[in-house]
Amino acid sequence: MVDFLTYFPQALTPINLLVLVLGVIGGLFLGATPGLSPTMAVALLVPFTFHMEPATGLVLLGAVYTATVAGGAISAILINIPGAPANIATLLDGHPMAKQGQAQKALYYCFISSLVGGLFGMVIMIFFTPPLAEISMEFGPSEMFWIAVFGISVMAGLTSGSVLKGLIGGMFGLLVSVIGYSPMLATPRFVFHDVLTGGVAIVPALIGLFAIPQVFSLMETAHKVTSDVEFKPQKGILWKTIKENLGHVKALSIGSVVGSIIGVIPGAGGQVAGLIAYDQVRKFSKNPQSFGTGNPEGVAAAESANNAMVGPSLIPLLTLSVPGSPTAAVLLGGLLIHGLFPGPDLFREHAAVTYTFIASLVLAQFAMCIFGIMMARYSHSVMKVPDLEMAAAVTVLAIFGTYSVQNSFDDVIVMFALGTIMYIGRKVGFSAAPVVLGIILGVIAEDNFLKGKLIADTDVGVVAYFFTGSLNVIIIALCVVSVGYSVFSEARQYKKAQAQAKAKEAGS
Amino acid sequence: MKGKSFLTRLAAVALAVALMLACGLPAMAEGYPDKPVSMIVTYSPGGATDFQARLVTMMAGDDKYLGQPIVIINKPGAGGQVGWNWFVQKGSKDGYTLASYNVPHFIAQSIVYPTKYDINTFEPVANWGADPAVLIVPKDSPFNNVKDFVAYAKKNPGKITLSGAGMYVGHHIAALQLMKAAGIKLTYIPEKGGVPAMQSVISGKVKAGFNNLSDAYRNQDRLKILAIADLERHEFLPKVPTFKEDGIDVDNSSVNYRGVVLPKGASPEVIAKLAEVFPKMFNDKKVKAKMKASGSPEKVMTRDQVIKMFKERQAYLEGLLADLKKKK
Predict the structure, then answer these.
(1) Which of A228, B182, B276, B304 lies most in the core, judged by the most C-beta atoms within 10 Å?
(2) Neighbouring residues of B189: CB distance < 8 A, sequence distance ≥ 6
(3) Which residues of B touch A457 (CB under 8 A)?
(4) Does any domain span residue B4?
(5) Cα atoms found within 13 Å of the Cα of residue A159, Cβ hemisphere only
(6) How far B105 CA sits from the closest chain A CA (Å)?
């Protein structure tokens, strides 16, 4: 901490500040573009830092990382397409808010919550790096498997209304995740068409599942004179929103804590942080039914979680050279080219550079919030775009975003196919979030189960390997509680609805 | 009016394309490259291959070299198979699509799996790096040298778990060689890349691992490095012995060579141009300095040397992998 304060002023040199501001503004735009995930954005920028001073280069990468994570929420809220997997949970309530004419408020919520979560994550990182690095190494195959199972148990709660439909959607996602070559033994599975050899990548799936049904339903209603909602700039709501937002202590603290925990676990990544936090906040809420219909608490939970993840995900990276998220893996390259090897040396011999980097991450949180709020003022103009034009624009963005991931038209075909299936699914009450979660978690679960089984077979046996050890037991208990609670609340709601129906009958 | 002008423009574009096709290859080689060149990296962003590929191509835009930047496109999946299959089947053959290669990975895969590629479908350009595999164990492991390790494995066949970056990558080949040469049985755990494989060893989730020398070098405070699978000791780790010094016949066949290829069918002019420019670019002072700073062992080889190396590895791996199949 003393070191941190000693080196803090170094982040404030004019050149570093300029790079920081440009990085944040650029990152917000990059993040808002569907398909350009934080990982891609940072990977694209790493070569630019070759020619910079080490500290300046890292300031740029850190600023872009922070801003793209938050920027992904812009498209999630305004056009219902998550800019990156981390923003899935944001759109569940963010987009309904925007449709009710509260886009600006939703975005304010998003950036303020990101700031709160981000700062929390940074504080955790600055104070607790050594013990958390130890904990992060405790996560082996069995623990990661149970983490994935826990994520899957969250799926049940994600579809408001039906646990069963949530689970079926999740199963569909799990099935999709096994398409392509198996991760360990490279056996081809379900590759009945050439475009599926690479499996279904997460970003095309994400865009397809969210954007394409959106396009279809925009076209369905385009001929009608729809909303009587007026989309005007909401003036003078900034201070009110800040006050209101900070009042949601529960949502913000659950989001920040969950995000930080997930960040420390290597390989889990921010994509699940938002969803798990969202689910927890919903479970603790007094009226869970309001989630999914434009409850600002949902936005607060999701965004505080995915930005809280940023700081802690750097802990295993900086101390053990084990990146906690895909983006952190790319950042590792940014460190290495300047001869900065992660480990204790980073904090001793290269302390000046390292702490400048950390300080700039803190500053980037503030810059992200300020510039994000400035951009949010113009959000109503996006909402004003007529449905037909919107449908066309979203289609273009969807194709562009999907293609740009790996310059592959195969991905575009996969994207459209999944999108069409999802459109039909949505008609009968399925939602996209559990499917995406299935696709993300399926890979983690399968990979770690196989790895764990191989290790267990040489040692104590599969059952003992997966069911003993305190971390395993804790995570299993969390899974049980999560599923149990979903079933319990579903049953309670069902009873309530029945009682209401009876009361109505009796009354009439 | 608008429609008409659009059609006219479309016709103009079509005409231009037709002209370009008609003029064909000779015209292209002359001005080549007149637009950015893309390079397929068959692993995800952030891995050692991706990182080094970005590093060694950073000077491509300089007029001394290509005069055009190289854009990295990641196509990960199935240990590189997805990207290389795409490269030979769907990549353009006009010299604007290159790919990075990893030996022995792609050669071993082409022997074991029905891949669309093998050494005959690639036109080597140049090699930029060579990363030997090293045998690592956790810091608190009871094994202090290869002898301990082999003695334990002999008494407890299959009980030592050993991680590596995937199936039929250099680490796997090294493990196969070690098992064959020392007459032991190990349980190989294929992971999704070198970083998770390294993590499993550091945290003690597996008992040992083969990993890149460069990554082990950076983590040496948190590991014990028992031996290096190469012909000589390495300048980065002068204290680590080779397997041969311990009397175990493991040679340099698992060394991970990284370089650049064009697809078969690229014009001779393009191949000649790149084969001349790339080794110079890899030897650029700036590139060398960055490679060294990041702990990435560089080894620049020309097209002819790479062709020879491909052939040697092919012959050796066919033997090694056939032996193993027979045992089953």
Answers:
(1) B182
(2) A451, A454, A455, B161, B162, B163, B164, B197, B200, B206
(3) 187
(4) no
(5) 26
(6) 13
How far does the CA of residue A193 sit from the closest CA of chain B (Å)?
Answer: 14
> Domain range spanning residue A375?
2-507
pLDDT of residue B222 exceeding 90: no
Contact of A25 with A18, CB cutoff 8 Å: no
Contact residues on chain B for A407, CB-CB shorter than 8 A: 38, 73
Cα dist. A490→A59, A160, A321, A427, B172 in Å? 48, 10, 44, 22, 49
Residue type at A30 in one-letter notation: L
- Would you give the DSSP letter of residue B234? B
- pLDDT single digits (tens) A240-257: 888 888 888 899 999 999
Whether chain B has a CB inside 8 Å of the CB on A204: the answer is: no
Per-residue confidence (pLDDT) for residue B125, from 0 to 100: 96
Q: Is the ipTM of this complex over 0.90?
A: no
Q: Nearest CA of chain B to the CA of A188: how many Å?
A: 9
The total number of structural domains in chain A stands at: 1
The residue of chain A with its CA nearest to that of B41 is A406
Q: Does A381 touch chain B (CB under 8 A)?
A: no
| Contact across the interface for B86 and A408, Cβ inside 8 Å | yes
Q: Which residues of A touch B78 (CB under 8 A)?
A: 180-181, 186, 197-198
> Which pTM does this prediction carry?
0.83
Kindly give the parts of chain A with pLDDT less than 50: none
DSSP A343: S
Q: State which of B239, B254, B269 marks the end of a domain.
A: B254
Same domain, B159 and B232: yes
Q: What pLDDT sits at residue B166?
A: 86
C-beta of residue B163 within 8 angstroms of C-beta of residue B197: yes
Q: What is the CATH number of the domain that holds B125?
A: 3.40.190.150
